[in-house]
């Protein structure tokens, strides 16, 4: 059956893979692209014009570190002219006040700063960048001075899970509107570093209880989004809100992907914005249509009443763990491959909670 394709809502634009930090859970591919493979300014702008024509409402400007692109203000200005909401996702360690002012003048709508730890020593240890924490705090101050909304993104794993209360205190202290407690998702670099990063069950449960209590206490003061780790869940998360359903990703060299990790699925090939119109890629590309809708689903997903909730989970996780991207996500308790994640007694496992808007990953 042909699946009807609606307009996309959001784009995650990975403007570059260059980054001053070296986080062990980076969501960029294990094979990073060098600067000479990046799209030039005119091609990015032409691509965003096409995205606006497609009906895109918001673009997350990401990387790597997107502020390393000298043309970022031009890109923001183009999106702003077209009425597209822009969110800058930055590590903020190389940002200057002058550049942030230029982004603001160009029409930037929102800034998200990642903190690798809630304490200076943790931020430095995980990102491997000297004085990173102080630089981030300074950048957060500039964001507030310029009147931009601020989100703190906290990727959580074994090395910083004990700092979750400190992340909340930090977000309150710097006046953030929103805090993303985003447990690391295990594909790409994080999959390779799983043993070092995966927190134990008790630490995850303490975190869940704390976040639930604190979210209620801080209602109206701080919006806390929370993504639990799949490895302790009974059901998977609705990855990307469904494959090819609402959003797509553009890589630094112009490949258009249904999710940021899609190139890890080696059985798929992806089109580039330099070779095919964006609308045609979104509506017709084989890689997008392969897992759209429900026809591709195997049992137990096909007859499951949760298929409208999680869309069968994550294709990249299914491929990484089973070698078959069409398999039921092993995070699901009904998956025949669930044993690969079954590291805790089932009675104590938790359900995934994806509250608020999910970064086309964390
Ligand atoms: Fe989701 Fe498939 Fe599991 Fe049902 S069987 S909960 S659709 S992953
Ligand atoms: Fe690719 Fe989930 S990360 S579908």
UniProtKB/TrEMBL annotation:
Catalytic activity: [PQQ precursor protein] + S-adenosyl-L-methionine = E-Y cross-linked-[PQQ precursor protein] + 5'-deoxyadenosine + L-methionine + H(+)
Taxonomy, superkingdom: Bacteria
Alphabetical list of SUPFAM superfamilies matching this protein: Radical SAM enzymes (SSF102114)
Cofactor note as given: Binds 1 [4Fe-4S] cluster. The cluster is coordinated with 3 cysteines and an exchangeable S-adenosyl-L-methionine.
Enzyme Commission number(s): 1.21.98.4
Gene3D superfamilies: Aldolase class I
Domain Radical SAM core: 5-222
Pathway of action: Cofactor biosynthesis; pyrroloquinoline quinone biosynthesis
Cofactor(s) of this protein: [4Fe-4S] cluster
Classification via Pfam families: Radical_SAM (PF04055), SPASM (PF13186)
Binding site for [4Fe-4S] cluster: 19, 23, 26
Keyword annotations: 4Fe-4S, Iron, Iron-sulfur, Metal-binding, Oxidoreductase, PQQ biosynthesis, S-adenosyl-L-methionine
Keyword check for Ubl conjugation: no
UniProt family annotation: Belongs to the radical SAM superfamily. PqqE family.
Entry function: Catalyzes the cross-linking of a glutamate residue and a tyrosine residue in the PqqA protein as part of the biosynthesis of pyrroloquinoline quinone (PQQ).
Assembly and binders: Interacts with PqqD. The interaction is necessary for activity of PqqE.
HAMAP family recorded: PqqE
Protein name: PqqA peptide cyclase
Species this chain originates from: Roseibium salinum
Gene name for this UniProt entry: pqqE
């Amino acid at each position: 059956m042909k699946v009807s394709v609606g307009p996309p809502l959001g784009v995650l634009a990975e403007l570059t893979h260059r980054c001053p930090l070296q986080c062990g859970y980076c969501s960029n591919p294990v094979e990073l692209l060098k600067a000479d493979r990046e799209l030039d300014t005119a091609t990015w702008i032409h691509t965003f014009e096409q995205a606006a024509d497609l009906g895109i409402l918001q673009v997350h400007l990401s990387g790597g570190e997107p502020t390393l692109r000298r043309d970022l203000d031009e890109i923001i200005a183009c999106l702003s002219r077209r009425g597209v909401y822009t969110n800058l996702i930055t590590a903020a360690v190389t940002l200057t006040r002058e550049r942030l002012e230029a982004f603001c003048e160009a029409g930037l709508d929102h800034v998200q700063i990642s903190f690798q730890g809630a304490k200076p020593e943790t931020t430095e240890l995980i990102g491997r960048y000297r004085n990173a924490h102080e630089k981030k705090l300074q950048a957060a101050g500039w964001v507030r001075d310029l009147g931009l909304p601020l989100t703190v993104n906290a990727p959580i794993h074994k090395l910083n899970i004990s700092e979750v209360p400190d992340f909340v205190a930090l977000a309150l202290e710097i006046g953030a509107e929103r805090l993303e407690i985003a447990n690391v998702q295990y594909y790409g670099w994080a999959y390779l570093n799983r043993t070092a990063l995966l927190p134990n069950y008790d630490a995850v449960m303490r975190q869940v209880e704390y976040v639930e209590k604190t979210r209620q206490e801080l209602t109206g003061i701080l919006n806390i989004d929370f993504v639990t780790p799949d490895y302790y869940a009974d059901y998977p998360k609705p990855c990307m809100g469904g494959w090819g359903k609402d959003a797509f990703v553009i890589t630094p060299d112009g490949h258009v992907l249904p999710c940021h990790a899609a190139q890890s699925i080696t059985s798929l090939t992806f089109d580039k914005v330099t070779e095919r119109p964006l609308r045609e890629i979104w509506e017709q590309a084989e890689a997008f249509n392969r897992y759209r809708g429900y026809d591709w689903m195997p049992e137990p997903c096909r007859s499951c009443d949760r298929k409208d909730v999680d869309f069968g989970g994550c294709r990249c996780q299914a491929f990484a763990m089973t070698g078959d991207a069409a398999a039921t996500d092993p995070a699901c308790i009904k998956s025949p491959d669930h044993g690969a994640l079954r590291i805790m007694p089932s009675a104590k496992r938790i359900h995934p909670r994806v509250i608020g808007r999910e970064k086309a990953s964390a």
